[in-house]
Amino acid sequence: MRAVVHDRYGPPDVLRLEEVGRPAAQDDQVLVKVHATTVNRTDCHRRGADPFVWRLFAGIRNPKRRILGSEVAGEVEDVGEAVTEFAVGDHVFGLNRGCLVLTRSSSACRPAG
Predict the structure, then answer these.
(1) pLDDT tens track for 1-36
(2) How far apart are CA 38 and CA 57, in angstroms?
(3) Phi, psi for 85 (deg, rounded to 5)
């Protein structure tokens, strides 16, 4: 899958489009193919490590998470063995980034229509 990533903190110039590995759903997770995501104020602060104390959570020297974005909407591609609330093809929304795995407690089905 393609994603906009950053391997160091800084201005928007540190971002680049790159092929990244596709995650796999664990027993209690849902793999979501993201159709839409946001980049919000928090993402901008995280990218720039502003304020500096942000690095205590996001990585001292370099970002722990390379992909920005926290709110997503997409389609379930795979579900873990313990997941019964979702099925492949369900349209969902949740909090995270990229093509991702979510815990079932941080996701919800999109209402029909």
Answers:
(1) 888 999 999 999 999 999 999 889 989 888 989 898
(2) 21
(3) -80, -20
